[in-house]
User: Fold this.
Amino acid sequence: MDQRDKSVKTGIGGINGGTPTPTSQLEASSALTEGVLDHPDCLGPTIKLRVDWHSKRDLTEWAKDIADWRQRKGFETSWENMMVKLMLVVTEVSEAAEAYRKPDRQNFDEEIADTLIRLLDICGSIGIDIEKELSDKMAVNETRPTKHGKVC
Ligand SMILES: [Mg+2]
Assistant:
């Protein structure tokens, strides 16, 4: 089991539910980024979660991990609040535009990451198979003529 699986199976306020796992059971790996859980549903001492955010993963795994992280932080993403979530994506794009305008390339890169995090949270939360959707859409895009047939 990789560390991502372990963090999901702890189910601390996670999308899979379950019982919180004491810190000592999560300390098997020493090469992990440490996060601290501060969830209002958790009673007792602070529980430390370890997710290796630097491990290689595909987009589907990113979506699942980001959705789980978002839920552990006490936020909800669902079809019912989708308009809010889409506007938060726009907010991150706006922050990237502001960073570009300054210009602040480092902040620009961070805001692009924030944008992708918001989108992948949506994917992971409502079950969008983003790898399939990307493949299908790019296959369609490939069939389009140069500049979509516009004459310059
Ligand atoms: Mg941001």
Q: What stands out?
A: The pocket of magnesium ion is lined by residues 92, 95, 111, 114 (CB under 6 Å).
